[in-house]
Prior knowledge:
Elements (H helix, E strand, L loop, with lengths): L23 H8 L5 H18 L14 E4 L6 E4 L2 H22 L5 H21 L10 H25 L4 H23 L1 H7 L2 H30 L3 H21 L5 H29 L28 H4 L11 H38 L17 H11 L4 H44 L11 H40 L3 H7 L7 H37 L3 H5 L6 H9 L3 H100 L1
Antiparallel strand pairs: 1-2
Helix pairs in contact: 1-2, 2-3, 3-4, 4-5, 5-6, 6-8, 8-9, 9-10, 12-17, 12-20, 14-15, 14-20, 15-20, 17-20
Amino acid sequence: MEAVPRMPMIWLDLKExxxxxxxLSCSQSAVSVPRDFEGCSTLRKYLGQLHFLQSRIPMGNGQxxxxxxxxxxxxxGKAVTHExxxxxxxxxxxxxxxxxSMLGAMDKRVSExxxxxxxQCAAGAFTYLRDHxxxxxxxxxxxxxxxxxxxxMLGQAQECLLEKSMLDNRKSFLVARISAQVVDYYKEACRAxxxxxxxxxxxxxxxxxxxxxxxxxxxxxxxxxxxxxxxxEEQQKFxxxxxxxxxxxxxxxxxxxxxxxxxxxVQEALRFTMDVIGGKYNSAKKDxxxxxxxxxxxxxxxxxxxxxxxxxxxxxxxxxxAVTGPDIFAKLVPMAAHEASSLYSxxxxxxxxxxxxxxxxxxxVLDQFMDSMQLDPETVDNLDMYNHIPPVLxxxxxxxxxxxxxxxxxxxxxxxxxxxxxxxxxxxxxIRDLLEEDEAQERKLQELLGKVPPAxxxxxxxxxxxxxxxxxxxLHEKASFTNTExxxxxxxxLGNLRLLGSPLEQVRAALPTPSLSEDDKQVLQNLKRILAKxxxxxxxxxxxxxxxxxxxxKDDITTSLVTTDRxxxxxxxxxxLKKYDQLKVYLEQxxxxxxxxxxxxxxxxxxxxxxxKALAEVEHKWNTxxxxxxxxxxxxxxxxxxxxxxxxxxxxxxxxAAKLLERARAACQASETHxxxxxxx
Length: 681
């Protein structure tokens, strides 16, 4: 896998800026930034100087020195203007993340560390932007879009790390965990891309991103299970090896389906990986079938692959002098008010940390619980699939509909083969009978002659005929086994081919379908209702968290701090922080409700167990039936080819046997004449 062609990466366009009257030279450099690492340094320096400026001069929204700042919104191309210096900072931060994403994607990945670092820097820029700035400036800087960008960048950074791990031949289990984490990051990104609100914000690029990310989810899941299979091989767990390689093959096939329309680099990577995984699976299955004979366990009984997050969003520090250079506004104003504001910001940050610790603890419990349940609200019953013929099977039915003589041709071909086979067998039997009769006559002659001196030897042709007959009989016997196997295979697939050529309703009726009682349906509806409650609880929690973050970001009491005595600062902080009490109560209620919701879900899941088992069994039978029908279609051409090869073989053998029969008759006649001459002496 270390030679696999690399997948393309997603990168973001840079926002374009209007005019800003302050920091003219820095601003111009940051707007027309070069697309290289020097460009990243320019943006970081400009960001730092903006931070120094806004901490001393009231240039925020509604403040005296505020000036209009204009930047384009990425997805619509519209100009967006705010009289707020923080908007300038936010747009510069966005461009910093976008430029790092561009450099990471453009890099040829000769050294994976470079691309990995760029993507981590991009994630860091978007994280700082999401956590420290308002999300109402423009669509491309909304909380949803920034969270999507962060997961995309972390996923791509982890992908680069995965490439290096495979090049370095790291242990199979570690590579599997690294690949599983790539899947986790991309799943988070895919959830955002599937969200209707996010999709409407992204516009036309949403479909392209979603297709690529969905394909990558299955692709890297396949890579993870490939390396789990390698680990099983190292541990000599040959049954597990087969199942992991089978799962990897299934996931790769899903990735191939989703890769339609992707560039040639993607197709090359998929073809390469198919060669690797397909070869591994075929070899493992053959070895297990003929050598090890280990039971192949179900996939859900095997060790799950837990992701190993080895990348992170590299933090942005806008006041780092090593990046920003000297503070060009150091002598403008005293820092007392700014220092007090910083203290209040720390109080807000502490409040946010405390709340987030509770949220993350509950989220972790919820995620672990839902992972253990393995319940997806969208596919918990999967009943709709039984109302349709799957596309792969529909394709085979359509192909046979334009070839109505398929079954007849196969039967006729096998009948012709059987006829030639019988003719050869008859010729060889007649030759053998002639030779046996001649031998019997020779024995009688010897008994009659007794001790009379031996006569001249019989004609030598019979020995050659006998030798050739033995050779043809051996060939016929070997081919007979192949012929029998060919007939067995034909009989196995013939009924399926007839079904595939039948009307579609008949095909659909042949596929297994679940039969649920009213009680079963009620159990399903109850489970879906509770799963919807779980999602509602998640959504409300995310909304409350977002409200809290936005409220904290907008909470600027600098004006109040200027007129407050230092001794009253603590009291002012306490009073100001009370504004968050109501939101905290809502969050506490949401978190407290989780225990009851999960208890109800546990009870519903217990009742669902029997229904789930029944549905799983039907789905397994359905999949097996579909696979069997598809296999029969795909076996047709092979059967026709082997049938033709058999006919060619037996036609050739028939000609040789016919000639040998003529020689046998002549030789036996000559031998009989010779015996008569001896008797007349």
